[in-house]
């Protein structure tokens, strides 16, 4: 796929992506200030776990998806960028909180995350739990106070976030994965858990995009289709990477878990991943037209998967 | 103190208190529905930890404080009751989540809570963590969607809740208590931690009351004074109970912790508790006048402490 993108466009695209990432990093750092007290380990762990080097895929996706719905040069395009960056930061905090908890001894019991000691190993389990709670609360606080956005919209965004995290969302996905992952699951059950673990957060991102951009009613289900397909593709990509030596996550931690890879084998999963990606691209075309920045970003995320395929 | 309350008034008061508690219990049960799937342990633990028999002190306080600011029979008195009950339920969920986490092995490592096995012992540590996260998210969702309340007010309530839980609030109190509790602390440090552990949530309750009742600007600091004094009094009461055989909490779990009781001895703490209570009552009189229901409730909470003193 990368071959389709000509070098000039790619360099403009890379520049834009760099801008978006820089805006997100800067805002995250503002929203999670250093406490100035070195004994304040929770504040330190909040920063370290959220600001650790990463692709910022979720917030980048949110910003590109929102900007793509607002015409360039329109008066409110700067406002939308700022609001999308704030929302993206909230989503990144939720994501970081979920990783801190997933790594704990009572969950996946991981020692490394992106090559660094996990939060509970570095700061203690008590700090890890409190860090996750504080990040979650901060995320809700950020969403509730986004400036220049109608209060009604802000309450809707808080509601979306609450449902995304709660017992019908990420919490349920993590629970099903922990408790049911070890037994043999059929394809439907795996797809459901995958959707709760990753698709729900992508769904929330796209709903947030729809809410702040004032997009048309008929675009909402298309954005949700995109999120669902992306979630399935991403979970397959993640399961494939778990078996791959150059992954930056703790390798083989899914050993013994019932995944699409253990059910179908790598080749079939790669073909299914390609199908989900193609459906995701189709949904994007219907909303954003051909050659949108967000479609370019989607190709970039999965470039490696495609090259390996 | 109890001697001042004549039997007739007390029985009307008991009836009103019973009504408020019943409304809270019923609404909590609606907001935390049974999942219908017995394997859904998180849903079960959310209900059990929140609906466990308890005094519902925080939500009762919230409802009485809000109703006291609205004249009886005023058109919106029913609406205020409903909104206060919803807010009270959110506060009770936050409180329940904090107890589930406090009991975990990496925190206070408690085996019993109100005579029952703690959530992590009954359901596992993973379920305990996920239950707390789900309760927290549910609380934010409930606050964001309270009906017949201006969206601006709802976003302010979400902000209050986020600050209350986060790294400047309950999280910080729990961290300071865990990490600094074992070393010798002076009175100022103990008062600060006590305020973060209990005063902040009372402060949030009174700010919520102020926000939904449309009370006067000059009443806000008075309600905050009341909350601060109540928080200090309550933490002292709790520390005294920890040494008392007929307490329903795990006895002696503060052994070795630096508290006002270990610093000053029981008698001096009882005298200080009485001073904080008297300041709390004074603040209530300035807002609610003499003989308010909420002042009656305050006396009821601390009746036992006074009788022992």
Biggest interface and its residues per chain? A-B, 49 and 49 residues
Query: How much of the polypeptide of chain A forms β-strand, as a percent range?
Result: under 5%
User: Which strands sit side by side, in order, in the main sheet of chain A?
Assistant: 1-2
Q: Provide the CATH superfamily of chain A.
A: Farnesyl Diphosphate Synthase
Low-confidence stretches of chain A: none
Please summarize the sheet with the most strands of chain A. Answer: 2 strands, antiparallel
The number of E-state strands of chain A comes to: 2
CATH-derived architecture of chain A = Orthogonal Bundle
Helix content of chain A: over 70%
Please provide the ordered H/E string of secondary-structure elements of chain A.
HHHHEEHHHHHHHHH
Q: Classify the oligomer.
A: homodimer
Structural class of chain A: mainly alpha
Average predicted confidence as pLDDT of chain A:
88
Question: What is the total domain count of chain A?
Answer: 1
- CATH fold call of chain A: Farnesyl Diphosphate Synthase
Supply Rg of chain A: 19 Å
CATH class call of chain A: Mainly Alpha
């Amino acid at each position: 796929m990368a071959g389709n993108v000509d070098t000039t466009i790619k360099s403009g695209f890379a520049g834009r992506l760099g801008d978006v990432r820089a805006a997100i990093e800067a805002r995250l750092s503002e929203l999670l200030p250093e406490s100035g007290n070195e004994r304040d380990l929770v504040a330190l762990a909040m920063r370290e776990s959220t600001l650790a080097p990463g692709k910022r895929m979720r917030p980048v996706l949110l910003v590109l998806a929102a900007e793509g719905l607002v015409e360039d040069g329109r008066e409110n395009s700067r406002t939308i960028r700022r609001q999308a960056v704030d929302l993206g930061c909230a989503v990144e905090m939720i994501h970081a909180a979920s990783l801190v908890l997933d790594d704990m001894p009572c969950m996946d019991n991981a020692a490394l995350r992106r090559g660094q000691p996990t939060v509970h190993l570095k700061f203690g389990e008590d700090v890890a739990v409190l860090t996750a709670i504080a990040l979650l609360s901060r995320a809700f606080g950020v969403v509730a106070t986004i400036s220049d956005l109608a209060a009604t919209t802000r309450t809707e965004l808080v509601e979306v976030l609450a449902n995304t995290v709660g017992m019908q969302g990420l919490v349920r996905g993590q629970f099903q994965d922990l408790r049911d992952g070890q037994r043999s699951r059929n394809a439907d059950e795996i797809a459901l858990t995958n959707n709760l673990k990753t698709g729900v957060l992508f769904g929330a991102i796209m709903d947030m995009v729809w809410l702040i951009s004032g997009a048309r009613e008929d675009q909402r289900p298309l954005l949700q289709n995109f999120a669902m397909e992306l979630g399935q593709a991403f979970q397959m990509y993640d399961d494939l990477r778990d078996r791959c030596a150059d992954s930056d996550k703790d390798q083989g931690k899914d050993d013994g878990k019932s995944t699409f890879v253990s059910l179908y084998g790598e080749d079939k999963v790669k073909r299914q991943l390609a199908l989900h990606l193609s459906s995701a691209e189709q949904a994007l075309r219907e909303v954003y037209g051909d050659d949108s920045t967000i479609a370019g970003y989607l190709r970039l995320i999965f470039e490696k998967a495609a090259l390996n395929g």
